[in-house]
Design brief:
Length: about 220
């Protein structure tokens, strides 16, 4: 088909073949709400990302009684757990670890603890930049992956939408819903894991590959 918009017969979601022409297609033929895609179970892309795009259901194909938000957050938490473990393994092997890498990993673990404490309305037990060994950071990170998993597993929409009041490290007051806090917590470590990888590579060591896509295809 040469039409600007074509329908993928597999899932019935309209996809753009021509990124310039698609915006001019009739509005009733366009789908541009992320919630619509999640509600239909559309969660992954396939094909050449620089050409035609279409979607499939691979990530959450198994039947579940939980909602799409629970499933999405549980996968992000599982990736966080996996990536933190790989970093801990790298820092605890092959000789003395790089001091900056150790400090970064301590920050990752501490921030996971900090945000969980904020959700519960409790004071944090660790500084934002704590003085933790790799093994101590591993324990903090693993414990909070468990806690976040328990928190999210059976949560409902009202809980995810509940606003959490807190002050950031600069003392500014904010409110964020639980769902946004969990997403931020799971994503926050990726930036710092990249910094750790750079430090390890500069020291002549091969850093772990912790991208989400690697987690998703780890058994292939």
């Amino acid at each position: 088909m040469d039409d600007a918009v074509a329908e993928d017969a597999y899932i019935g979601v309209l996809v753009s073949r021509d990124r310039l022409a698609a915006p001019h297609a009739a509005r009733k033929h366009r789908v541009d709400r992320a919630g619509h895609l999640f509600d239909r179970g559309v969660v992954a892309s396939r094909g050449n990302v620089h050409g035609r795009r279409c979607m499939d259901r691979r990530a959450f194909a198994r039947p579940t009684s939980r909602g799409w938000m629970n499933e999405l957050l549980l996968r992000l938490i599982a990736h966080m757990r996996w990536a933190d473990r790989l970093v801990a393994d790298a820092l605890e092997s092959d000789g003395p670890p790089d001091a900056d890498a150790v400090r970064l990993f301590g920050h990752i673990a501490s921030v996971e603890h900090l945000w969980y404490s904020r959700i519960l309305g409790q004071p944090a037990a660790h500084a934002v930049w704590p003085d933790l060994s790799p093994s101590e950071s591993r324990r903090v990170a693993a414990a909070h992956a468990d806690l976040f998993e328990q928190l999210v597993h059976d949560a409902d929409a009202a809980f995810f939408a509940r606003p959490i009041a807190y002050r950031n490290s600069a003392g500014h007051a904010f409110e964020s819903p639980v769902s946004e806090i969990v997403i931020h917590t799971a994503m926050h470590g990726e930036h710092h894991r990249g910094q750790i990888a750079r430090r390890l590579r500069a020291a002549g060591r091969e850093p772990p590959y912790t991208d989400y896509i690697q987690y998703s295809r780890r058994d292939q």
